[in-house]
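Handoff note, outgoing to incoming analyst
You'll be picking up this chain. Sequence as last confirmed:
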Amino acid sequence: MDYLTFRSGAAFVLAMLMAIFAGRAIIRRLQLMQVGEIIRDLDLEGQEKKKGTPTMGGIIIILSILVPCLLVGNLTNAYMLLMLVSTLWLGAIGFLDDYKKFKKRNKDGIRGKYKIIGQVGLALIVAGTMYLNPHMVIVENREVISTETQRVEEVVYADEEVKSPQTTIPFVKNNNFNYGWFTGWAGDYAEAAAWVVFFFVVMFIVTATSNGANLNDGLDGLCAGLSAIAGAALAIMAYLGGHLIYSAYLNIMYIPDSGELVVYMAAFIGALVGFLWYNASPAQVFMGDTGSLTLGGVIAVSAILVHKELLLPILVALFYLEDLSVVLQVAYFKRTGGKRIFKMTPIHHHYQKPGDGSYPALIQWPRQAIPESKIVTRFWIVGIILAVITFVTLKIR
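Most recent structure output, in case you need it:
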């Protein structure tokens, strides 16, 4: 139990097995309670077959994350505690939304503004804890440049731990970025103002990622698969950032005690793999907002805690593309009096429609409707490519 790798492996296995075996019982209970998916007629492939499929399956994911973390996680670690709070917080918001849909027997859950208020509230808790908790610090990395070759000779670390709103940015030589760059004009208050900027960035990242995952959850296995891929990438980042030698090799900041996030992310991945046992096409259960809001928020918070939040536009670009497609579609529709850019949004549904003019839109490609399972697989492939690119950015500068 002293080894991080052993506890992470145990968390993965426990979470996966719990999702598979406890998931079966939860699905039966949801069926008995008649908690079925309510379908709007959108003229999509296989849509009617999904009617009545149990939803709120996010309960399976949440329980399968929490139980292993409580068993093998270090509950005195601030990073672990913050992830558990985030899981419960977002799970509660999603559950309330799903429960309201179930009670009213329609697709109208809690109002969007209340979801955003809840997400912003979590963002403030995360950012506030990072600002106030004395144990959530970083050790800055510094390059030693050879005078002869003008190349990096070695990476050394500062002698002391500091509390700083720094993050990692891609494609630049010195990839540490301090939000104080925006607040130099504030003079003696520049550091405090930098934390204010950081608070706003955290609010945007949490809400955008959580809602992006929520919009992405429209095809069997799509959101669960993409979240597992992103979770694996973040687990590796947490392990590297929490290990002094590996941090030096990648020339990234060292974050003491953040390695405990690997245990959480291992449980996160295991829960999603187990959930896919039932959620893969044809799905026997849907995660609902209980799951999707939680998955996106957890990905955002974990990236923020390892100071890699500005890498998320690469890592989970597909989530943000879902957000953007809806925003553009609605804005264009209102501005033009009913015209559309995409055949349908969120963007994954665009590919389910034929481009033969039967669905008027600026973008008609692809000409033929793509089967749901193929869309999901291709999105997974793109997700894997984006995860690889995210890591490559740390070395290409």
